[in-house]
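To fix ideas, we reproduce below one chain and its tokenised fold.
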Amino acid sequence: MASLFLPSPSSSSTSSSSSLFSRCSFNHRSFLLNESRPRINSVKCDLGEPLNGKPCIPILVDGAPPKFLASKRLESAFNRNNTRLKIFSGTANPSLSQEIAWYMGLDLGKIKIKRFADGEVYVQLQESVRGCDVYLVQPTCPPANENLMELLIMIDACRRASAKNITAVIPYFGYARADRKATEMTEYKHWVSGRHTQGRESIAAKLVANLITEAGADRVLACDLHSGQSIGYFDIPVDHVYCQPVILDYLASKTICSNDMVVVSPDVGGVARARAFAKKLSDAPLAIVDKRRYGHNLAEVMNLIGDVKGKVAVMVDDMIDTAGTIAKGAALLHEEGAREVYACSTHAVFSPPAVERLSSGLFQEVIITNTIPMMEKKNFPQLTVLSVANLLGETIWRVHDDCSVSSIFQ
């Protein structure tokens, strides 16, 4: 049975010369605390735990405002300023929303969401948001259409309630895979394989971006989009949050010799992601699984580019849907002599038969995050779920305080 891990690297794993992170430049303290931030912002986000430690409520120094805020007038102004940030949760992933609010030291906003008998969504805000910066946490995970419609109606409710700014926090952007039409080369490959061309496809990612914008959102905050080009589909600012540091922080607690590690991209399209991941792992070597895809959720592995013999292979991808690609890739890695295979992914869609494939013994461990809620029936012994609540909470603070978000990942 899987459990929610909120680990912090042990001193032994960070000090050992053979540790995976012995030469890694990643530092979770510098990740969280930016020296250039104004004093009032650092007070709000004063943290005593590493990035993926137990979510803690940010507290003021010594439990009271700083001396320059000691007067009652300034103290009341400080408290009023805090109430200008409100977080509301949809029904898609309420546990993640609660963790984010816990990290930020806030209470979730009161909202009523229900379904009519015919399935229509009803949303009512049960507290004032006039003049507030509102953050709506709602991934568009399965059922994607239900959760997307709920998000749109939540945005509309906030806009009609005179919210100052509305940010759609979408940990998992469900339609990001439908992000382009088939190219001439793709059509040629389909012709060679005997399939019909696919030139008359929709670009649903752009459509959904338009819907969110027209509903009234002023900004979008999304985690690990399937492709970076999806950001350009929005006509409003988009903050793209990379969840790799959360997984890296967890891997830092493991004593794997960097010389025994190889990072593997399950397909050619994920090479850039795997290369960035490998760079953080003491510049670990990179391998690529070359596959041929003949249809949606259907993949055939052909060969491996790189050497994995006798090494610990870490496969990195943005999402796991049916697990066909990553399972066939893991089987190939074992055939090529890999000692152990780890799977790391941000979004665990886990459509059938993903659980059966992932729990078949191919993987030493499957490491995911909680951008999508994990149902009890999808748990299996090799599964590890990491929380991105601290990362999202810190990002929300920085957006609210007009601070840099990209500096988190530098």
